[in-house]
Specification:
- By secondary structure, the protein is mainly alpha-helical.
- Helices cover about 60% and strands about 5% of the residues.
- It is built from 42 helices and ten strands.
- The strands form two sheets. Strands 1, 2, 3, 4 and 5 form a five-stranded mixed β-sheet that branches. Strands 6, 7, 8, 9 and 10 form a five-stranded mixed β-sheet that branches.
- Helix 39 packs antiparallel against helix 40.
- The N and C termini lie far apart (about 80 Å).
Amino acid sequence: MLEELDALDAHTPMATEQLITTLSESADPDLALHGLCTMAESLHRHGHDVAAFARTLGMDDDFRRRLVYVLGASEALGRHLGVHPRHWYDLADPSLAGSRPSVEDVAAKLATAIDAANPIDALRIEYRRLLLRLAARDLAEGLLVDEVAAVLADLAAGALETALHIARNDYFAAHPGAADCRLAIIAMGKCGGRELNYVSDVDVLFVVEPLEGDAEAPALKTATQLAAAAMRICSAHTGEGTLWPVDAALRPEGKSGPLVRTLDSHLAYYQRWAKTWEFQALLKARPVAGDAELGREYSERIGRLTWSAADREGFVDDVQAMRRRVIDHIPAADVDRQLKLGPGGLRDVEFAVQLLQLVHGRSDESVRSGTTLVALESLTTSGYVGRTDGAVLADAYRFLRSMEHRIQLYRLRRTHQVPEDEADLRRLGRSLGFTKNPVADLTAAWKKHALEVRRLHEKLFYRPLLAAVARIPGNEVRLTPEAAKQRLTALGYADPASALRHIEALSEGVSRRSSIQRALLPAMLGWFAESPAPDAGLLAFRTISDALGSTPWYLRQLRDEGASAERLAHLLASGRYAVDLLQRAPEATAMLADERELTPRTPEALLTEMSAAARRQDNPEAAVAAIRAVRRRELFRIAAADLSGMLDVETVGEALTVTSIGTLTTALEVARKAVAKGEPEPTRMSIVAMGRFGGHELGYGSDADVMFVHDPLPGADEKKATDFATQAATELRRMLALPGADPAVAIDADLRPEGRQGPLVRTLASYASYYARWSAVWEAQALLRADPLCGDADLCRSFRELIDPLRYPEKGINQRDVMEIRRIKARVDAERLPRGADPATHTKLGRGGLADIEWTVQLLQLREAHRVPSLRTTRTLAALRAGVDANLVDPSEADTLSAAWEMATRIRNAIMLVRGRPGDSLPQDPRDLAAVARICGYPPGESGRFADDYLRTTRRAHNTVAHLFWDD
């Protein structure tokens, strides 16, 4: 630094004590000093009066401060002054501090470039000169960021006007006979809102009309050439650099549409084709250049359409998609340092304001400004945003915009990324007035404002809804009932009147309970709105709160455990199944507080708890009711974990199977004791799980397919033993099916030998005799899923040893049996599909569905399990993986079948979670389909992609089944 101070004095003394003091106050003293040296050298090299510059620098405090502050904050403007050093006179202008250039003043100064020898370069030089004046006022005079942004927008408007003049001169000089036209440039985005950044794309639309009496086609041709030329004049890189890119992608049909349109063409597009986001963009549309009368007419006529957007079909879905786009389009690597798109960033504020404008602006013209801060102030004044919230949000927005301006000003590059380099952060912090600990203080202030924005972004929509119906003390905004209904409708609530009644019921009064609910509800309403069924979520929340509101832990848990409240909100709005379970025993809400509580229980722990619960009861029915209560809680635990994305499909199936094993094991024990009535039991009993139960693949809507087996004790009468076992099995089924507060357990024993015509219970010897004499290949196939899981362990083992030779025949099944299995499958395909069901979307019996995949795997087991021990499993996916390991199935084909099986199983579970009743086909109702898609992991608004993915996945599986099962 000392060397540069010496260099500064090389041509005339400049390094005064005052200068050194001013340098020390700048954002980057080294950068400022380097810029001064470059300027002094440039002045000397071009033969300018260095001494005059030095005298002014020493005597004029205002000039010295402006120049040094600019050089210390902007390397790019330092380079500009190195090339155009005489622009220092602008910073010495005594009127600069008090100047407030009008739009006309800015346009007139830029228009002087039109008559220059090289008008395009002259425009750049004049633009940079005016930008230098603005930056000096910004950095040294404490200009509000609102005014900086407005002047930047005026500069852009003037540059567009000048560029259009230059384009006209060039075009008509080259084409003197070309048709003339009326052409208006409509600014969009930040330029349209008069809130432009130092460096930003300038978004525009072009509207054209032929001169009176002229044809339209020649006018359109001329206007297209003029518009394209004006864009190039601003965007092109010359020896004097570039201004900024001009982007016309917001025009109707985007980049695929014509660059210019007539006013009627614009109107026709917006009336027929435009999406809600396009009307959102039009909130900032403002004529800035060209034919002023045409621009005004465009604004008036398009404005009427813009403010009726909320009445259009699909508005709610579009709004929800727009809200998601704020977060979804953030690059993951940039999210923590994004000023614009990151959580708590500028886009959060802008989107919140624009959405409130779309909702309330249709009936209130006072909130229609295209400028974010002006619109926010109007929304606050008109009572749509609380005064405190509006003020905090405005302060945060100004701070974040100031950060953005300073970051861009350094190199005049378009960026919204907070730098990571310590030196860059130090310069940024000092430029914003953090001189003591610039890095730490800047970071703390940034995070604080971002946190406030994020908090208020959520609160802004929902908090006023409470005030519309509740007596909230203080200065809280109070929406009118109609405004509250408008907002709820925009957020996706189908019955806003009922929603308001629920909000009122939850938040009315002055009790501690009401106070906590008022604090909770804004966030809860937002979480409900993110789901396909917000009305159902809010109703369920009211029901649960009515049941638990007086308990000391419920509201405290939701208030203090943010994850618990969010988890509950998403669960309540996900569908009927979990809600029904929770409403039967609301205290299960407690397990949502700790994610570890949602981990499915181990078989041993569950069996111990169910047995203990049964032993505490005096009569069998009460004992089974206690077992069912534990089962209901476990079903809720599994559903909650599943809806929270904690469990995959196989884990859900295993957890539900473990719950059924515990239920049947303990209930069988109760039933046996009830039948025995204190007498010794004459036989051992076991329950053989079949189908999905035996495959450890139960779904939420699955019955428990079983067979009952018993083995009389030595010396016991076989008939008495069989009567005892039959009574016990019958009593078990009766008690598990009794009406009650907890869901019944449906036990299906139809897969037993001889089906419904056969005895409910057989001895082990009877099973052996039947299978030896009568067993068909389809029964061997059914036994592939048989797993003795409940009751006497030795008997379970004996039954397994009995059936293994049947299901895993010594040399595999013969070709005749293969043909029989294929014949039965063909008949199932032809006859079992329910009438009216679409085979493309039926998850069980449809093309590429569960039956296709499971029959394919089972045929492989019947053929090869005798020589591949790992195929001897009741689980579908485990058998498929074993087939790959044994080189019996190509890995890619196994992946295809696994993907289809998992997706179909997930969908069946999701249908049950959404509707509270089983279903096998993709829902036809759009809301149900959206809810199922969400549970299956698809983002909101992507139900169509979800359905397409299912069709594509099952089509591939069907082709694989054709190869592996049918040998096609």
